[in-house]
Amino acid sequence: MTAIIEASGVGFSYPHAAPTLHNIDLAVRQGTNLGIVGESGSGKTTLLAVLLGLQRPTSGQVRFSGAPLDLGNRDSLVAFRRDVQVVFQDPYSSLDPRQRIDRVIAEPLRSLGLVPAAIRSDGRRAVSEWIDEQVEVALRAVGLTGDIARRHPAALSGGQRQRVAIARAIVSRPKVLLADEPVSALDVTTRARIVDLIKELGSALGMSIVMVSHDLTVVAALCDETLVLRKGEILEHGATARVLGAPNHAYTRRLIASVPRLPNSE
Amino acid sequence: MTLLQVDALSIATRAGAPLVDGLSFSLNAGERLGIIGESGSGKSLTSLAVCGLLPADLTATGSVHVGDLEVIGARESELIAIRGSRVGIVFQEPLTALDPLMRIGRQLAIVLRRFRGLRGAAIDDAALAALEEVHIRAPKRVLRAFPHEISGGERQRVAIALALASGPEILIADEPTTALDVTVQAEVLDLLDALVAERNMALLFITHDIAVVSRIADNVIVMRSGVEVERGTVRGIVHGAADAYTRDLIASAREFDDALAFGDIR
Amino acid sequence: MRRRIPHSLTAGTILVAVIVLLAVASWFWLPFPIDDMSGGRLEAPSWHHLFGTDKLGRDLFARSMIGARIALEAGFFASLIGGLVGVTLGLLAGFAQRWWDSIAASLLDSLIAFPTLLVAMLLVAAWSASLTTAIVAIGFAIATVIARVTRLLIKRVLNQDFILASRASGSSWPRIIVLHVLPNIWPTLLVALALQFGLASLSEASLSYLGLGTPPPNASWGSLLQEAQATVTTAPVGAIAPGLLLVALVVGTNLVADGLREYLDPTLRRQS
Known about the structure:
The complex is a heterotrimer of chains A (266), B (266) and C (272). Chain A has 10 helices and 10 strands. Chain A has 266 residues and is α/β, with parallel strands linked by helices. Chain A has a single domain (5-258), classed as Rossmann fold, CATH 3.40.50. Chain A has a 6-stranded mixed β-sheet, sandwiched between helices. A 4-stranded antiparallel β-sheet of chain A has the order 2-1-4-5. In chain A, helix 3 (101-111) crosses helix 5 (124-141), helix 3 packs parallel to helix 6 and helix 6 (158-170) packs parallel to helix 7. Chain A is globular. By secondary structure, chain B is of the alpha/beta class. Chain B has one domain: P-loop containing nucleotide triphosphate hydrolases (Rossmann fold). In chain B, the strands form 2 sheets. Chain B has a 6-stranded mixed β-sheet with strand order 6-7-8-3-9-10, with helices on both faces. A 4-stranded antiparallel β-sheet of chain B has the order 2-1-4-5, covered by helices on one side. The radius of gyration of chain B is 19 Å and the shape is globular. Chain C has 272 residues and is mostly helical. Chain C has a domain at 76-265: Orthogonal Bundle (MetI-like fold). Chain C has 9 helices and no strands. The chains are: A alpha/beta (266), B alpha/beta (266), C mainly alpha (272). Chains A and B meet through helix 7, helix 8, helix 9 and helix 10 of A and helix 8, helix 9, helix 10 and helix 11 of B.
C-alpha cells in the first residue's frame, strides 16, 4: 500500500548551523496513527513543518501519494492541502483573534476550492448557504453547537478553541491529520476529551493521525506506531506497544521512566 | 507553631465575583500539601494570597497566618519581612520569573546579599554553591549567562535556587514543571523532593496533574471554581474519590496512565 | 458587540471638532478679509475684532481661522502621504527575509534619524517655502515612523500560528494579507496615524515659525506666533490665541489616539 506521505533521507539545517534534522525516513499510511515523540531540541517542530510542506528539506525528499511533493504548482499544492491538514499546539494563537469562528472554518472551503461546481453556478447566495451548512456540520462533528459560529475566539475556552481548530482541519475531509502537541496546553479532563474526539474522528473519517508530542501518555493513547526523535535523528521506530513496552534505547527507557504515574493500588 | 495557617480564605473581584471561597488548610514543617485544580479553580490565586501578592483589584478575606503574621491586610513592610525569609515561591514560567536583562550571577547575588548578609568574594562562592545544590552542570557558565542563554530546565533550577537562597521555611511551587520537557520534569521533581526533605520545609505544591502531585505530596486538596470539593491523602483520592468531579479528574488521568501500561516499564 | 466609548475619545473628538469647525467655516465666511489692514494696529479684543488685531491691523480671528485650515491641511495630507508611503514600505520590509530584512531594518532606522527640519530646509532650498514643501517634508518623516511600526506589527503577526494555519488551509499570500495581516494591524496603525496627525500640524507650525513653511501673507498659526513675538508683552492675545488653538489641536488628536487605542484593543475584549 502506498504511503500517503513519505519522507526519505530528509534532512534540514539552517544556514551555518548544525542540522536540525538528519536522515529521516518515515511513512504515513492509511489506517495507521503515527506518534512522533520528542523533547525540545529534538527537531519535531521542523519535521512537522517539512511534512506539511511549510519548509523545504535541505536534503532528501518528501513524497505525497508516491510523487515528490511539488508545492510550486498551484494544483498540486491544493491537492496536497486538501488531503493533509494540521492542528497546532497553542489554541490562543492558532485562531485569528479578529476572525469570526464561522469564517475561520470556512477559509479552507474557499481557498481549497471545495465548493462544488454545481453550487458555484447557482450564484453567491447558494455558495454562502452551502458553506454555512458545512461549517455547522463541522462544528457538530467536534461537539460544539451552532451558536459558536458567530462568536470570536476570545469568547471561547482553550478546549473550545482546539475543537474549532480541529473543525477547520477536517472540513476538507483530509486523509492525514497532523497534530502538534494538540492537548499540551489544555486541562487534564479537556485533554482526555479532545484525544477521544481526535480518535473518533480519525476512524469515522478514515483519517490517519500523525501526533507530535513530548507527552508519551497521549501518544500511547492514540497511536499504533511510534517514532522517537532525538537531536534530529530517529532513535526508535516501530509499533507503539513495542517501542514503549520494550524499548531498545536507553533514552527511550529514560523517557518512559520520567513520566509521572498514578500510585498503584496495593 | 504552625508554619502556615489558612482559615476561610476567600478572594473576590471588586465587583464581588468570588474566585476563591472559604478555603482552609494548615502546614507544619516537613508537611507537603498539593492543591489540584484545572484552570479557573483559583489554585494559583491561593498561592499569591499567601504571600500577599494578589493583584490590586482583588480582595482577600478570611485569615492567612504565616508564623505569627496575619498576611491579609498586612502592611507592605510587614509582608516584605516574610517574603523570601519565611515563604519562597517558584512559578511556572521560568522565562518570566527571571529578569531577562540581568545575568544569573547578579540575580543570585542580590538575594544572597540581602538575606545572608554576604559581601564580596563570599557571594561568588555562595552563588556557585547555590547552583551546585540544584544540580546545574557547568555552574560557572550559568552564573555569567542571561536567562535566555540557558535551557528551560536550567532556568527552573535557577528559580528554585533563588527561592531557596533566602532560607524560607515554606516553599510554594505553582506548576513548576508544567512548562518543562518530560525528562527535565522528572529531574526537577526529584530535586524539589530532595531539597524540601533536606531542609524540612513545608511544601505547598500546586498543579493540575494528579500524577505529578502523587510523586511529591502526601495530602491533597481538590479545587473547582474556587471551592474545595474534596481532600485527603493522595492514595485515598486516587483510589477512592468521593466527589463526582474528583472522580472525573482521576478517570481522565487514568485513561492516559493506563495507555502506558505495556509491560513492566514502571 | 459595541463597547462604551472611552472619555478620552469623546473629549479629543470635541477639541478637534472645534478646530475643524473654524477651518470649515473659513471657506464660507470670514469676519474680515485676511489682508484687510483697516483695523487699528494691535487693538485689544472687542466685539468688532474677537481676538483683536495684529501689528499690521489685520483681524486676528480671521487669520486664526485660516490658520486652522492650514494646520488641518498639513495634518491631513502629511498623514495621508506618510500613511500610504509608510505602510507600503513597511509591508515590503515586514515580509523581507534574511539579509533583505537586515537591510530594510537598517535603512528604516537611518531614515528615521533624519530630522524633519533638515529635510524641510533641503526641500526649501530646492523648491521654495510653501505649504506643499512643508507637507512633503513632514510626510516623509511620518512615512519613516509608520514604516517602522508597520514592519514590527507585520513581523509579530507573521509569527503567529494562525498564519501557518491559513497557509495550511491553502490560502495564497495575497489572501493571507487581506484576510489576516491587514485586519490585525490596522487598529494599531490607525492609532499611530492619529498621533502623527497632531504632530504634523505641530511640525507645520514650527516650520512656518522659522519661515520655512507657508509664506506670508498666509496665516499659519506658526507665522502668527512668529509675528506676535515682538509684542507679546504689550498685546499678548496675538500669541495666546494661535498658541492655545495649536495646543487644543495637538492635545485633541492625542486624546483621540489614546481613546482609539482603548476602544480598539482586542486584549481588552478577552473578558471570559
